[in-house]
C-alpha cells in the first residue's frame, strides 16, 4: 500500500487544480456574459460507479456545489438501463432536464466519460448558464409560467459530441429552439474545451502517480473529507435548531411560501428536515431535489469554507427528502426560480438555524436575492430588439465581530453587477441614481450592510419590465436580537403614476413607454446582536456618513445624536426604557 | 533649474528600491568599466528618504558625482493599503456619489458571507452636483456652476487637501469635468485636482472613480515625499533631476510623477519584472515566468519576447481596482512564512495562513511557534543551520525538527525530517498550481519558458517548481536579492496609451486606426522629449485588445505596425485565439475593443557583467567549495557540496545535488539538475526530469 499522508495531500491538490483549470478555461473562452463575466458555471470530477463528486472547482458558482453529481448519476443509471445510448471514447452528453438532477433549464450540463485502458475511469462534467433556452420569455425567467414547457427546451441526456465530432443534427434542433442561437456554438466549444483541458490534466496525474494510487487516494480522500466535516459538527451542542424563511410568492398566486427547517444535531451528524414547508406551487418558485440539496451544501460551505467540496463532506449532512413540498418538485412543475431565489431562501433558513448552534461562524441573514430586473423592448433609434438584465446586490448580515458588507453579491453567486455606463451604452435607458440605500441595514450590535437604491428611466420606444426578486414581504432576518434588514421595494412610475407589483418582488411584462421609470431598493442585511449594545460612537459615525438619520439612530439603536454629537444622558435614557 | 542630462554607457547610474524591510541600492559605475556598488539599509518607514540617502552614503561613492538616480518607492502603495491617505473630497454627478463605495456587488471570497471594506474617500466627503452627460456624450443636464462652487467651498471648509471630480460618461465627453476643474481651481488652495477621465478614459464608473480617488488621495503624499528626497539629495550635492519607477515598468521624472501618482502604486513588483526581462534577454532567454518569493506572498509575471505582459485591470486589494496600464504581476498568497498544519481529516495543508514577518518562521527566533516552509528548508539542510546564530534569540535545528515531529508528524506517522519533507513538497506543489493558473494555464506551452527566480527565497524552490510546472530551465540572476533595484537601473522611459474602439472588425475605419495609433506615438514622444534624460532611441509598439462579437473577455494581440487592414486584424486575432483555446470559430466575426500603444525611450545598454566581481572567481570549481553537508531530497539524505556563488568560475558546470550560497540568497540544485554560470554571473539550470 503506497498511500501516505504526503501522497494523499498531493493528489488532493492536483485534483483540485484540475478543476480550477477547467473553470478558468470555460470562463475565458465563453461567449455568454453569464458564464464569462458572472462565472455562472462550474466544473468537476465524478466517480465512474455512481457519479458521486470527487472534486469541484473552487471558483465555480456556489449554487452548483455538489449538484452535478446527481445529473451524472442519472446518466450512468440511464446508460445501465439502456434508456440512454452507451458511451464511446470521445462522446460528450448534454442534459438540462431539471428533474434528472438539475437546476433550471438555462443551466446546461455537459458530461464526458474519461477512458483509461478501455474502461471509464471517471466522468468530467460542467454546467454553464446559457443566456436563452427558448420558452415564453427571453432569458427563461418567466415569473408566471405554470408548467416547465413554458420555460424552454428540455433536453434528456443525449450525445452532443460523438467520437469528438459535434452532432450537427442535435445541434440544429437546439439552435432552432433558442434565441440568439448564432453565438451558442462559441459556448458549446468553450464548454467542451474545458472538459478536454481537464482530461489532459487528469491523464498527467494518472501517468505520474499511477492509476491505482489515484483510485485508492480518491477513496481515502472521500473518507477523510467526511471525517473533517464530522470534526466540525461534533462540538456543536446536541439538539434541534429550528428556523423559517419565506419566499414572497410563487409569482402566480399571491401568498408566501414557507420553508420550515429543523436541523437535528446528533453526535457528529446533522439531519436537515424541511417538514412543514409549503406544498408545490403553481408558479415557477419550485425547487427540484438536486437544487434543494446543493442549497444546503452551499450554505454549510459558507459556514465552514475550508471543507473540500466532495461527496465525503456531504456524508455527515443528512437531508431528508422533502416529499410533498415545493422543495422537491416533480414534472411538470415550473422551476425557473429555483436556482436564483428559492435556493437563497433555503440557505437563509440554514443560516438562521445554524447561527443558534455556532454563533461565531454564521452571520445574520444576507439580502439573499439575485435582484433580477429584466427589460425587453425595441429601440427605435437602433432599429433592434433588446433584453436588458440588471442584477444587483444587497446588504450582508452582521456577524459576531463586524458589520455586514454593503451591496454584496447574492449568496449563491460570485458575479459582478454591470456598470451603469455599460448599461446606458447598450440600452435606451438612463439611470437617475445608483446609490447606497440609506437606513436599510438591519439594526444590531453589528448592523447589517446596506442595500442598493436605483432608478432607471426608459428613454425611447416601448418596453416590458419584469422582476424576479424576493424579500419584499419580510426583510432578511436579524440574529441574536438583531433587527431584520429593510424589505426589497419595487415601484414603477407609468405616465407619472406609481405602480407597486401586487406580489411586491415579482411581476412580468409591465408595459412601459418612454419617460416611464422603475425604482428599486434592494434589501439590507439583518442585524446581529442587540442594537442597544452598539457602540454609540459607531452610531454617531453612521449618522455623520448619512447611513441613518438622527431619528433612526434614536429609534433603531437608542442613541441620541444632537447637533453632530452624542447626547449621553438622553442615550442612556433611551437605552434603559424597556421596549414597548 | 533642471539640468539636461544625456545618459550614456559611461555614466554612473544608481537604482534604489524601497522594500518592506530593506532599502536596496545598486550602482553601476560606467566610468570605471561597470564597477558595481551595492548597499542594503533598513527601510525608514516614516520617511523613506532617510533610508535612500543612507544607502547612497554607504556606497562611499561621492554623491555629487552620480549622474542619475532612479528610484522605486512604496510610499503610495503603503498609503493605500494602510489607508494613510490625504484628506480627499469627491464631487460626482447627482445620484452617483456612492459608486466608489458600492462597487460591483462582490464579496472578498467565494465562500464565507463576511468581509470588511473601507472606501478610499468617506461618504461625508463625497458631494453631488447637477449635471448629466449621456452615453453618447450628449449633454442632458448642463453643469450647475453655482452648485459646483458651493460643493468646492464645502470641501475646502471640511479640510480637504485633494479633490476628485468624477462625472458619468466623462470618457465620452470630458467637457463638464474640465469646466468643473476650472471652477475648482479658482478657489482650491493647491494643484491637487484629479478629473476622472484624465487618468483613464474608459467606461466603467466604479473602476474609473476608484482609480481617480486613489490618485488624488496619494498625490500630496507622493509630492511631499519627492520634495523631501529632493531636499535630502540636494543637501548632499546631487542637484540633478531624478527618476521614479511607474507600475508600467517605465520611469518618469520626479517633476512629473505626481500628476499621475496612481501609476506608482505597484511599481515595486514591476521593476523586478523589468530587471528579469533585461537580464533574460542578455542571457538569451526571452520567454520567462518570473517568480519572486517573499515571506507572505509570491509575485508572478509572464514575459514573452523580452516584453513583460501589461494589464489595464490590476486590483491592489479587495474592491480596489487601479485601471491604468501596469506590468501584470499576479500575487499568490503563499511564501516562506506560509504555515503548515494537519487538518481535521488528517491531511497536511500548507497556507493560506502565514507567520508573516512577525513573528515569522520559528527559525527567526522571534517567537514563531508554527512550522513554516522556511523552517522546513532549514530542517532539510537546504538553508545553512549555522546562519541561525545570526538571529536574535537563536533556536536549534533540533528544536525546529521536534516541532515538525509534534505538529505534523504525530498525526501522519512521520518523523520530524519526513514531515518537513512533506511540507516542502506540498508547499511547492500548491505554489506551482497557483503559478500555473496565472501563467502557463493561459494557453502557453511551458516548454517555451524558463523560470526566473528572484527574491531571497525564490532560488530555494526554483528547480522544484520548474519541475512541477514543466518548465525546462531555471535562471537565477547574479543578485537575486536586489533585482528590484536592478530594475531601476535598467528601466526605460515609458508611456502607455489606450483608446476604446469597440466595433466589429468588419466595419472599423482603417484610417482611424492608423490615426489613433499615430496620435499615441506623437503624445508619447512629446512626453519623453520633456524629460531631462535623453534616450538613445524611441521604440513604439502597438497592440489591439480583441474578442469575438458577443464575448466579454478580451485577448491582447500585438500589431505589426500602425497601418493594419481589417483582414490582418481578423487573422491575427484568430491565430491568437486558437493558440490560447485551441478553438476555431470561423462562423463568428471579431470585435476590436481597444487600441494600445507603448512608447519607450530606450536608455543605453547597461553592462551587467560585474554584478558579481569577476576578480573573485576561483580557478576551479573546487576552489569555490565551501563545505559538504547532508541535505534531504525526496526521502533521503545526500551529501551535498555547498559552493560560494561569488567564487564560481566562468562557465562552471555543476551537477545536482548542490547548493549555491551567496549573501542574500540560496540556490538549490536537486539530483538530476545541471547548472552553468554565465558571463553575467547568472546561473542557468537545466531541470532534471520529474
From TrEMBL, chain A:
In this chain the Hydantoinase B/oxoprolinase domain maps to 4-531
- Species of provenance: Mesorhizobium zhangyense
Q: Which GO terms describe its biological process?
A: glutathione metabolic process
Would you say which domain of life the source belongs to? Bacteria
| Xref: Pfam families | Hydantoinase_B (PF02538)
* InterPro entries assigned: Hydantoinase_B, Oxoprolinase-like
What GO molecular function annotations does the UniProt record carry, in alphabetical order? 5-oxoprolinase (ATP-hydrolyzing) activity
What this protein is called in its record is Methylhydantoinase
| GO-annotated cellular components | cytosol
UniProtKB/TrEMBL annotation, chain B:
A Gene Ontology biological process in which this protein takes part is:
glutathione metabolic process
Domain (Hydantoinase A/oxoprolinase) ranges? 208-496
Q: Where is the Hydantoinase/oxoprolinase N-terminal domain?
A: 15-186
Cellular component GO terms, alphabetically? Answer: cytosol
Q: Which Pfam families match?
A: Hydant_A_C, Hydant_A_N, Hydantoinase_A
**Which GO terms of the molecular function aspect are on file?**
5-oxoprolinase (ATP-hydrolyzing) activity
In terms of InterPro entries, this protein maps to: ACX-like_C, ATPase_NBD, Hydant_A_N, Hydantoinase_A, Oxoprolinase-like
Q: Which superkingdom heads the taxonomic lineage of this protein's source?
A: Bacteria
Among SUPFAM superfamilies, the record links this protein to: Actin-like ATPase domain (SSF53067)
What residue stretches are annotated with the Acetophenone carboxylase-like C-terminal domain?
521-678
This one is known as Hydantoinase/oxoprolinase family protein
Amino acid at each position: 500500500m503506497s498511500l501516505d499522508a504526503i501522497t494523499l495531500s498531493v493528489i488532493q491538490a492536483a485534483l483540485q487544480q484540475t478543476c480550477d483549470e477547467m473553470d478558468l478555461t470555460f470562463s475565458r473562452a465563453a461567449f455568454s456574459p453569464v458564464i464569462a463575466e458572472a462565472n455562472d458555471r462550474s466544473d468537476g470530477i465524478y466517480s465512474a460507479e455512481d457519479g458521486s463528486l470527487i472534486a469541484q472547482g473552487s471558483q465555480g458558482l456556489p449554487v452548483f456545489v455538489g449538484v452535478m453529481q446527481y445529473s451524472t448519476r442519472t446518466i450512468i443509471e440511464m446508460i445501465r438501463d439502456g434508456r440512454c445510448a452507451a458511451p464511446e471514447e470521445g462522446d460528450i452528453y448534454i442534459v438540462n432536464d431539471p428533474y434528472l438532477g438539475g437546476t433550471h433549464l438555462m443551466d446546461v450540463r455537459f458530461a464526458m466519460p474519461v477512458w483509461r485502458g478501455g474502461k471509464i475511469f471517471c466522468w468530467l462534467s460542467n454546467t454553464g448558464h446559457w443566456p436563452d433556452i427558448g420558452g415564453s420569455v427571453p432569458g427563461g425567467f418567466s415569473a408566471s409560467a405554470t408548467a416547465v414547457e413554458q420555460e424552454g427546451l428540455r433536453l434528456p441526456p443525449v450525445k452532443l459530441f460523438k467520437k469528438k465530432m459535434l452532432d450537427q443534427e442535435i445541434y440544429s434542433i437546439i439552435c432552432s429552439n433558442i434565441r440568439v442561437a448564432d453565438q451558442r456554438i462559441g459556448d458549446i466549444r468553450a464548454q467542451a474545451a474545458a472538459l478536454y483541458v481537464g482530461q489532459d490534466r487528469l491523464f498527467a496525474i494518472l501517468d505520474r502517480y499511477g492509476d491505482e494510487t489515484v483510485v485508492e487516494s480518491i477513496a481515502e480522500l472521500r473518507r477523510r473529507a467526511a471525517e473533517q466535516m464530522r470534526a466540525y459538527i461534533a462540538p456543536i451542542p446536541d439538539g434541534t435548531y429550528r428556523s423559517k424563511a419565506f419566499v414572497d410568492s410563487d409569482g402566480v398566486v399571491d401568498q408566501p411560501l414557507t420553508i420550515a427547517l429543523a436541523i437535528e444535531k446528533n453526535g457528529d451528524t446533522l439531519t436537515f428536515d424541511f417538514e412543514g414547508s409549503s406544498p408545490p406551487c403553481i408558479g415557477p418558485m419550485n425547487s427540484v431535489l438536486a437544487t434543494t440539496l446543493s442549497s444546503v451544501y452551499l450554505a454549510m460551505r459558507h459556514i465552514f469554507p475550508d471543507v473540500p467540496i466532495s461527496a465525503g463532506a456531504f456524508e455527515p449532512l443528512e437531508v431528508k427528502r422533502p416529499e410533498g413540498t415545493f422543495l422537491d418538485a416533480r414534472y411538470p412543475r415550473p422551476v425557473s426560480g429555483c436556482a436564483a431565489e428559492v435556493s437563497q431562501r433555503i440557505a437563509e433558513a440554514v443560516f438562521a438555524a445554524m447561527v443558534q448552534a455556532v454563533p461565531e461562524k454564521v452571520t445574520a441573514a444576507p439580502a439573499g436575492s439575485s435582484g433580477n430586473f429584466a427589460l425587453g423592448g425595441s429601440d427605435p433609434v437602433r432599429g433592434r430588439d433588446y433584453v436588458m438584465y440588471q442584477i444587483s446586490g444587497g446588504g450582508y448580515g452582521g456577524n459576531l465581530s463586524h458589520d455586514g458588507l454593503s451591496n454584496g453579491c447574492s449568496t449563491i453567486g460570485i458575479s459582478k453587477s454591470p456598470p451603469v455606463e455599460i448599461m446606458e451604452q447598450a440600452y435606451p435607458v438612463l439611470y437617475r441614481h445608483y446609490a447606497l440605500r440609506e437606513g436599510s441595514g438591519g439594526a444590531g450590535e453589528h448592523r447589517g450592510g446596506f442595500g442598493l437604491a436605483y432608478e432607471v428611466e426608459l428613454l425611447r420606444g416601448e418596453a416590458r419590465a419584469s422582476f424576479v426578486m424576493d424579500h419584499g414581504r419580510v426583510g432578511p432576518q436579524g440574529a441574536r436580537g438583531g433587527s431584520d434588514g429593510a424589505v426589497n421595494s419595487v415601484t414603477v412610475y407609468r405616465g407619472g403614476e406609481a405602480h407597486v407589483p401586487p406580489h411586491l418582488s415579482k411581476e412580468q411584462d409591465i408595459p412601459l413607454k418612454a419617460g416611464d421609470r422603475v425604482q428599486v431598493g434592494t434589501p439590507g442585511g439583518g442585524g446581529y446582536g442587540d442594537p442597544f449594545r452598539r457602540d454609540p460612537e459607531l452610531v454617531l459615525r453612521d449618522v455623520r456618513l448619512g447611513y441613518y438619520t438622527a431619528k433612526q439612530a434614536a429609534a433603531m439603536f437608542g442613541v441620541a445624536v444632537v447637533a453632530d454629537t452624542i447626547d449621553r444622558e438622553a442615550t442612556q435614557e433611551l437605552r434603559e426604557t424597556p421596549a414597548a | 533649474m533642471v539640468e539636461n542630462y544625456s545618459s550614456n554607457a559611461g555614466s554612473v547610474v544608481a537604482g534604489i528600491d524601497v522594500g518592506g524591510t530593506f532599502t536596496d541600492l545598486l550602482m553601476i559605475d560606467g566610468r570605471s568599466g561597470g564597477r558595481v556598488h551595492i548597499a542594503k539599509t533598513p527601510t525608514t518607514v516614516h520617511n523613506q528618504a532617510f533610508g535612500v540617502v543612507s544607502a547612497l552614503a554607504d556606497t562611499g561613492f561621492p554623491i555629487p558625482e552620480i549622474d542619475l538616480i532612479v528610484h522605486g518607492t512604496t510610499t503610495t502603495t503603503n498609503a493605500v493599503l494602510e489607508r494613510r491617505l490625504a484628506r480627499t473630497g469627491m464631487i460626482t454627478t447627482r445620484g452617483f456619489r456612492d459608486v466608489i463605495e458600492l462597487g460591483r456587488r462582490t464579496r472578498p471570497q467565494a465562500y464565507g458571507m463576511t468581509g470588511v471594506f473601507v472606501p478610499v474617500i468617506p461618504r461625508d466627503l463625497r458631494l453631488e452636483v447637477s449635471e448629466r452627460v449621456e452615453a453618447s456624450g450628449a449633454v442632458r443636464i448642463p453643469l450647475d456652476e453655482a452648485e459646483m462652487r458651493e460643493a468646492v467651498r464645502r470641501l475646502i471648509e471640511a479640510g480637504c487637501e485633494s479633490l476628485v471630480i468624477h462625472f458619468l460618461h466623462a470618457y465620452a465627453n470630458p467637457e463638464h469635468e474640465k469646466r468643473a476643474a476650472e471652477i475648482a481651481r479658482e478657489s482650491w488652495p493647491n494643484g491637487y485636482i484629479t478629473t476622472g477621465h484624465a487618468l483613464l478614459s474608459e467606461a466603467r464608473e466604479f473602476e474609473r472613480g476608484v482609480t481617480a480617488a486613489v490618485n488624488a488621495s496619494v498625490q500630496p503624499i507622493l509630492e511631499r515625499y519627492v520634495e523631501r528626497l529632493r531636499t535630502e539629495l540636494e543637501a548632499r550635492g546631487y542637484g540633478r533631476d531624478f527618476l521614479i519607477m511607474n507600475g508600467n515598468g517605465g520611469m518618469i521624472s520626479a517633476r512629473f510623477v505626481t500628476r499621475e501618482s496612481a501609476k506608482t502604486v505597484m511599481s515595486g513588483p514591476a521593476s523586478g519584472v523589468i530587471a528579469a526581462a533585461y537580464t533574460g534577454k542578455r542571457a538569451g532567454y526571452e520567454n520567462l515566468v518570473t517568480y519572486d518569493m517573499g515571506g507572505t506572498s509570491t509575485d508572478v509575471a509572464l514575459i514573452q519576447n523580452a516584453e513583460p505582459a501589461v494589464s489595464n485591470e490590476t486590483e491592489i486589494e479587495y474592491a480596489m481596482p487601479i485601471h491604468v496600464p501596469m506590468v501584470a504581476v499576479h500575487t499568490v498568497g503563499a511564501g516562506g512564512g506560509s504555515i503548515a498544519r494537519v487538518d481535521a481529516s488528517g491531511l497536511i495543508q500548507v497556507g493560506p495562513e502565514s507567520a508573516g514577518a512577525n513573528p515569522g518562521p520559528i527559525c527567526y527566533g522571534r517567537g514563531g511557534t508554527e512550522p513554516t516552509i522556511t523552517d522546513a528548508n532549514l530542517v532539510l539542510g537546504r538553508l545553512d543551520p549555522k546562519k541561525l546564530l545570526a538571529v536574535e534569540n537563536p533556536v536549534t535545528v533540533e528544536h525546529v525538527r521536534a516541532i515538525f515531529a509534534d505538529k505534523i508528524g504525530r498525526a501522519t506517522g512521520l518523523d520530524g525530517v519526513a514531515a518537513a519533507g512533506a511540507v516542502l513538497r506540498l508547499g511547492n506543489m500548491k505554489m506551482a498550481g497557483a503559478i500555473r493558473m496565472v501563467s502557463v494555464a493561459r494557453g502557453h506551452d511551458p516548454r517555451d519558458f524558463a523560470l526566473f527566480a528572484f527574491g531571497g527565497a525564490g532560488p530555494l524552490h526554483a528547480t522544484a517548481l520548474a519541475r512541477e510546472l514543466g518548465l525546462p530551465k531555471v535562471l537565477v540572476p547574479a543578485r537575486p536579492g536586489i533585482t528590484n533595484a536592478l530594475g531601476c537601473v535598467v528601466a526605460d522611459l515609458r508611456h502607455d496609451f489606450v483608446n476604446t474602439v469597440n466595433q466589429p472588425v468588419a466595419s472599423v475605419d482603417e484610417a482611424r486606426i492608423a490615426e489613433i495609433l499615430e496620435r499615441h506615438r506623437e503624445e508619447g514622444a512629446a512626453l519623453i522629449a520633456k524629460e531631462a534624460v535623453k534616450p538613445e532611441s524611441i521604440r513604439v509598439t502597438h497592440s489591439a485588445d480583441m474578442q469575438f462579437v458577443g464575448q466579454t473577455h478580451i485577448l491582447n494581440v500585438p500589431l505589426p505596425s500602425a497601418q493594419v487592414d481589417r483582414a490582418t486584424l481578423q487573422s491575427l486575432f484568430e491565430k491568437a485565439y486558437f493558440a490560447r483555446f485551441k478553438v476555431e470559430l470561423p462562423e463568428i466575426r471579431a470585435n476590436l475593443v481597444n487600441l494600445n500603444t507603448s512608447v519607450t525611450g530606450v536608455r543605453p545598454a547597461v553592462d551587467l557583467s560585474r554584478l558579481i566581481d569577476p576578480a573573485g572567481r576561483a580557478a576551479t570549481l573546487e576552489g569555490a567549495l565551501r563545505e559538504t553537508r547532508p541535505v534531504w531530497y525526496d526521502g533521503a539524505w545526500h551529501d551535498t557540496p555547498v559552493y560560494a556563488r561569488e567564487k564560481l568560475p566562468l562557465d562552471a558546470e555543476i551537477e545536482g545535488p548542490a547548493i549555491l550560497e551567496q549573501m542574500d540568497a540560496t540556490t538549490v540544485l536537486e539530483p538530476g539538475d545541471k547548472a552553468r554560470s554565465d558571463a553575467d554571473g547568472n546561473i542557468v539550470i537545466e531541470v532534471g526530469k520529474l
